[in-house]
Amino acid sequence: MKLESRSPTGPIDTAWSRAKFDMKLVNPANKRKYKVIVVGSGLAGGSTAATLAELGYDVACFCFQDSPRRAHSIAAQGGINAAKNYQNDGDSVYRLFYDTVKGGDFRSRESNVHRLSEVSVDIIDQCAAMGVPFAREYGGTLANRSFGGAQVSRTFYARGQTGQQLLLGVYSALERQIGAGKVKMFPRTELLDVVVENGRATGIVVRDLVTGTITSHSAHAVVLATGGYGNAFFLSTNAKGCNVTATYRAYKKGAGFANPCFTQIHPTCIPVSGDYQSKLTLMSESLRNDGRVWVPKNAADAAKKPGDIADDARDYYLERKYPAFGNLSPRDIASRAAKEQCDDGRGVGPGGRGVYLDFRDAIQREGEDKIAEKYGNLFEMYERITGEDPYKVPMRIYPAVHYTMGGLWVDYNLQTTIPGLFCVGEANFSDHGANRLGASALMQGLADGYFIISYTLGNYLAGVDAKSLANPQGAAFKTSETEVKAKLDKLLAIRGKRSVDSFHKELGHTMWEDCGMARSRESLERAIAKITALREEFWANVTVQGTNDSFNQSLEKAGRVADFLEFSELLCKDALVREESCGGHFRVEHQVDGEAKRDDASFCHVAVWEYQGEGNAPARHIEPLVFDNVHLATRSYK
Ligand SMILES: Cc1cc2nc3c(=O)[nH]c(=O)nc-3n(C[C@H](O)[C@H](O)[C@H](O)COP(=O)(O)OP(=O)(O)OC[C@H]3O[C@@H](n4cnc5c(N)ncnc54)[C@H](O)[C@@H]3O)c2cc1C
Question: 210 is in which domain, residue-wise?
Answer without folding.
Answer: 28-262+403-465
